[in-house]
C-alpha cells in the first residue's frame, strides 16, 4: 500500500504549510530585528567615516574602529559639515551620511542628477573631505570612504566589501592595503587621474606617492581592478567641487 | 567514553578519520577550495558549519516521518536556508561585528554539500540525538581538513599564520627571507587547495589500505 506521505495531496499540503511556516518565520524575524539592524548600520557608517579621517583605535596591524558607544558623539565632534552636492548646487544636510550611494547611482543612470554626499571633518587643525563611494569587486559590491585634502591628496581610506574571497580580495580591508593609499595623489599634473592598483609598479613599499599607483594584492586582481575603477569613476564626480573650492 | 555508548561515540570519531566527509565521502570540496587561503577564515567556516549541521540534522531528524519523499531535497534546502538566514539576522542585530565576518560564509554554508549530504544520508533515517552527534562528527571532520589545508596555504603562500607573520618580513627581507626564501604565490590560488587535499587523501590511504577502492 502507498504510504501516507507519498500521496500527491499530502505532498502539496505539506509544501504549502512549509512555505507558510518558513515564510512567516523569516518575515517575523526580519521585521522584528529591522530597527536594531538599521541602527547598527547607521553606527557603522559613522565609524567608517571617522576611520577614514584617522579617528580610530588602530593597534599594531589591525584596523579598529572607535567603539559604537562613542561613535555618535565623536561624529558630532569631528564632522563639521555634511554636504550634498547636486550638480552645481551644494547644500548642507545633517543626515547626508544616510544617503544610499547605490540608489543614487541607479537614479543617475536613469538620467536624474545624482546626490553626492561629502563630509567635511576637522582634526588637529587639518580639514578632511570624506567621500563615500561604491563599485563592483569580483563577487559582489565593494565600497569605500576616502578622506582627501583640498588638493585631492588621499589622507585616509577605509575599504569594505560584501563577499570578496577570504584571504584574497577580502584583504582590501586590511591595513597593509588601506594604508598604502595615505598620501597618494588622485591628480596628476593638475588633472584627475585616480589611483591604479598595480601589479608591476616596482614600488612595494609605496614610497612614490605621486605615481597614482598602489601595490596590488596577489591573487586579487579582479577585486583590485574593481577598486581602481570605483575610485576613478566615483571620485571624478567630486572634481568640480574641489575646483570651486580653490577658486573661492 | 562514559558519556556516550560505543556506537554513539563512533558517530563522532569515524568522520574524523576513516569516514571523513572531505577525503572519503568527497563532500564539501567547493568550500574547501574557496576559503582555505587563510587559517582564520577556515576556522570561522568550520565553526559555522558545526553549528548549522548539528542543528539542521536535529530539525530534519524530527521531521523525518512527515517529510514527503518526493520533495525531500527541497524541504532540506529550505530548512538549512531558513536556519542560516535567521542566524545571520540575529547576529546582525545583536553581534554586528561578528556578523560582518560571517556574512561572506552564509552563501557558502547553504550550498555546502556536506550539509545536504548528511541530511539525506543520515538525519532522514535516524533519531534526533544520533543525528546531532553525526552532525558534530562530520562538521569536525570537515573542519580538521579545512584547518590543515589552510595552515599550509597561509604559511607557504603568505608566510603568516592567523595573519601574524611567522617567517619574517618579505619586503624588509628579515627572518627566513634574509636567506633567500620567497613566498609561493601559487599556494594562495584555489588549485593548490585541491593539490593539498589530494596529498592528504594520499597520505591517509597509504596508511590505511582498507580505504582504497578498487
UniProtKB/TrEMBL annotation, chain B:
Keyword tags: Cell inner membrane, Cell membrane, Ion transport, Membrane, NAD, Sodium, Sodium transport, Translocase, Transmembrane, Transmembrane helix, Transport, Ubiquinone
Residues spanning the membrane: 41-62, 74-95, 101-119, 140-164, 184-203
Reactions accelerated catalytically: a ubiquinone + n Na(+)(in) + NADH + H(+) = a ubiquinol + n Na(+)(out) + NAD(+)
UniProt enzyme class: translocase
Claim: Chaperone is one of the keywords in the record: no
Pfam family, one: Rnf-Nqr
Annotated compartments: Cell membrane; Endomembrane system
Record InterPro entries: NqrD, NqrDE/RnfAE
Topology with respect to the bilayer: Multi-pass membrane protein
Annotated EC: 7.2.1.1
Assembly with partners or alone: Composed of six subunits; NqrA, NqrB, NqrC, NqrD, NqrE and NqrF.
NCBIfam families: nqrD, PRK09292.1
Protein family per UniProt: Belongs to the NqrDE/RnfAE family.
Function: NQR complex catalyzes the reduction of ubiquinone-1 to ubiquinol by two successive reactions, coupled with the transport of Na(+) ions from the cytoplasm to the periplasm. NqrA to NqrE are probably involved in the second step, the conversion of ubisemiquinone to ubiquinol.
Name assigned to this protein: Na(+)-translocating NADH-quinone reductase subunit D
Species in which this protein is naturally found: Lacinutrix gracilariae
Lineage of origin: Bacteria, Pseudomonadati, Bacteroidota, Flavobacteriia, Flavobacteriales
Amino acid at each position: 500500500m502507498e504510504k501516507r506521505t507519498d500521496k500527491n495531496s499530502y505532498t502539496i499540503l505539506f509544501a504549502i504549510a512549509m512555505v507558510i511556516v518558513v515564510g512567516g518565520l523569516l518575515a517575523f524575524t526580519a521585521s522584528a530585528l529591522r530597527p536594531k539592524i538599521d541602527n547598527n548600520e547607521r553606527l557603522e557608517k559613522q565609524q567608517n567615516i571617522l576611520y577614514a579621517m584617522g579617528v580610530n583605535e588602530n593597534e599594531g596591524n589591525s584596523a579598529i574602529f572607535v567603539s559604537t558607544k562613542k561613535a555618535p558623539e565623536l561624529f558630532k565632534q569631528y564632522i563639521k559639515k555634511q554636504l550634498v552636492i547636486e550638480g552645481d548646487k551644494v547644500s548642507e544636510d545633517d543626515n547626508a551620511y544616510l544617503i544610499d550611494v547605490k540608489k543614487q547611482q541607479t537614479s543617475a543612470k536613469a538620467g536624474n542628477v545624482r546626490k553626492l554626499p561629502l563630509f567635511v571633518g576637522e582634526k588637529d587643525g587639518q580639514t578632511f573631505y570624506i567621500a563615500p563611494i561604491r563599485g563592483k569587486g569580483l563577487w559582489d559590491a565593494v565600497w569605500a570612504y576616502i578622506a582627501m585634502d583640498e588638493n585631492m591628496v588621499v589622507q585616509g581610506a577605509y575599504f569594505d566589501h560584501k563577499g570578496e574571497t577570504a584571504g584574497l580580495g577580502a584583504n582590501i580591508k586590511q591595513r597593509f592595503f588601506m594604508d598604502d593609499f595615505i598620501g597618494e595623489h588622485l591628480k596628476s599634473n593638475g588633472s584627475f587621474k585616480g589611483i591604479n592598483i598595480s601589479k608591476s609598479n616596482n614600488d612595494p613599499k609605496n614610497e612614490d606617492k605621486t605615481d597614482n599607483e598602489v601595490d596590488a594584492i596577489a591573487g586579487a586582481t579582479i577585486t583590485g581592478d574593481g577598486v581602481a575603477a570605483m575610485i576613478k569613476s566615483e571620485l571624478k564626480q567630486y572634481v568640480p567641487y574641489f575646483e570651486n573650492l580653490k577658486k573661492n | 567514553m562514559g558519556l556516550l555508548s560505543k556506537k554513539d561515540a563512533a558517530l563522532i570519531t569515524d568522520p574524523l578519520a576513516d569516514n571523513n566527509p572531505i577525503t572519503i565521502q568527497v563532500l564539501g570540496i567547493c568550500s574547501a577550495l574557496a576559503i582555505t587561503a587563510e587559517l582564520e577564515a577556515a576556522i570561522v567556516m568550520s565553526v559555522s558549519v558545526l553549528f548549522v549541521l548539528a542543528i539542521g540534522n536535529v530539525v530534519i531528524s524530527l521531521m523525518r516521518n512527515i517529510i514527503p519523499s518526493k520533495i525531500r531535497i527541497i524541504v532540506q534546502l529550505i530548512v538549512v536556508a531558513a536556519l542560516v538566514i535567521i542566524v545571520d539576522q540575529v547576529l546582525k542585530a545583536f553581534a554586528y561585528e561578528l556578523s560582518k565576518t560571517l556574512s561572506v560564509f552564509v552563501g557558502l554554508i547553504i550550498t555546502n554539500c556536506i550539509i545536504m549530504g548528511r541530511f539525506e544520508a543520515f538525519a532522514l533515517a535516524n533519531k534526533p540525538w544520533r543525528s546531532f552527534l553525526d552532525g558534530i562528527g562530520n562538521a569536525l571532520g570537515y573542519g580538521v581538513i579545512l584547518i590543515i589545508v589552510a595552515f599550509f596555504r597561509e604559511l607557504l603562500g603568505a608566510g603568516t599564520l592567523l595573519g601574524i607573520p611567522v617567517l619574517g618580513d618579505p619586503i624588509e627581507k628579515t627572518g627566513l627571507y634574509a636567506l633567500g626564501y620567497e613566498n609561493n604565490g601559487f599556494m594562495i590560488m584555489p588549485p593548490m587547495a585541491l593539490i593539498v587535499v589530494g596529498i592528504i587523501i594520499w597520505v591517509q590511504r597509504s596508511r590505511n589500505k582498507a580505504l582504497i577502492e578498487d
